Amino acid sequence: MNEIEITKENFEEEVIKSDKPVLLDFFATWCGPCSMLSPVIAEIAEEYKDKIKVGKIDVSNQEELAARYDVMGVPTIIVMDKGEVKATSVGYKPKEEIVKLFSDV
Fold first, then answer.
1. pTM to 2 decimals?
2. Judging by DSSP bridges, how do beta strands 84-90 and 3-5 pair with one another?
3. How confident is the model at residue 104 (pLDDT cuts 50, 70, 90)?
């Protein structure tokens, strides 16, 4: 598994200081679209492991991170590079659209 569980404790190290762009999947276990998106995110994590890092953030456990990035609905995908938000997407999207979010980073 190439996805990393991101928490407020490891956020700085895994996301801000990452040497490659990070795709963050803000999700909730009770969210249907999140469950549908999860295998897509896992596929992306495997296929693009040399290009990006993929982190999963459970908004129920990491409310502080969700609030910090104004996550109002799940699933929310945020692509970050060198600590800056480069792209955001809310709701279920097909794999191609998610890949487009980080293809220019």
1. 0.96
2. unpaired
3. confident
Sequential DSSP letters for 38-53: HHHHHHHHHHTTTT-E
Kindly name the residue from 15, 24, 34, 44 that is annotated as catalytic. Answer: 34
Q: Which two tokens stand for residue 7?
A: 């928490």
Contact partners, residue 66, CB within 8 Å, separation at least 6: 26, 57, 59
pLDDT tens, position by position, 52-71 = 999 999 999 999 999 999 99
Name the catalytic one among 4, 23, 24, 31: 31
Look up 34 and say whether it is catalytic: yes
What's the CA gap between 12 and 101, in Å, rounded?
Answer: 22
Give catalytic status of residue 31 as yes or no.
yes
- Residues 28-49, mean pLDDT to the nearest whole number: 97
Sheet of strand 22-27: strand arrangement? 3-5, 53-58, 22-27, 76-81, 84-90
